[in-house]
Amino acid sequence: MTYNLIRYGVKDAGIAENRALVAKVFEALDETQPQSVRYLVLELENGEFVHLVGYDKDSSALTELDAFKAFGADHAGRRSAPLVRAPAKIVGNYRMLAKADEAVPA
């Protein structure tokens, strides 16, 4: 599984919208249940959002969702800081992310 960490700041006026759009992505993931994607989004107190995306082969099971496309549509307009993307490796994981051979906790 390939992992990427994506970080960006959001303008105060755009935080609620960003949060709602992220929620729609999770609703779409719950509906489609792609087994090839793992996705975690954190919102920090300073208006920064952190996404951890894991995927097998390619990320299209996530990026092709209509809800994800809507999330990305005016993303630059909501940001207060540039988007930073970096490959990431899981060094330690205690019950946060499911392992490849186990079910994702509900």
Structural description of this entry:
With 106 residues, the protein is an alpha+beta fold. It is built from 4 helices and 4 strands. It has helices at residues 15-32, 60-63, 66-73, 75-78, and strands at 2-9, 37-43, 48-55, 84-88. The protein has a 4-stranded antiparallel β-sheet with strand order 2-3-1-4, with no helix packed on it. Strand 2 and strand 3 form a beta hairpin. Helix 1 runs antiparallel to helix 3. The protein starts with a strand and ends in an 18-residue tail after the last strand. The model has no long low-confidence stretch (mean pLDDT 90).
Topology:
Blueprint: E1 2-9, H1 15-32, E2 37-43, E3 48-55, H2 60-63, H3 66-73, H4 75-78, E4 84-88
Antiparallel strand pairs: 1-3, 1-4, 2-3
Helix pairs in contact: 1-3
Short summary of the structure?
This protein has 106 residues and is α+β, with helices and mostly antiparallel strands.
Q: How large a portion of the residues is in β-strands, by DSSP E?
A: 25-35%
Structure annotation, total helices: 4
Note the gap between the termini.
Answer: 21 Å
Helical percentage: 25-40%
What global shape is seen?
Answer: globular
H/E element string?
Answer: EHEEHHHE
The poorly predicted ranges are: none
Q: Please report the total strand number as a whole number.
A: 4
Secondary structure category: alpha+beta
Question: How large, in whole angstroms, is the Cα Rg?
Answer: 14 Å
Determine the mean pLDDT.
Answer: 90
* Biggest sheet architecture: 4 strands, antiparallel
Q: Tell me the strand order in the biggest sheet.
A: 2-3-1-4
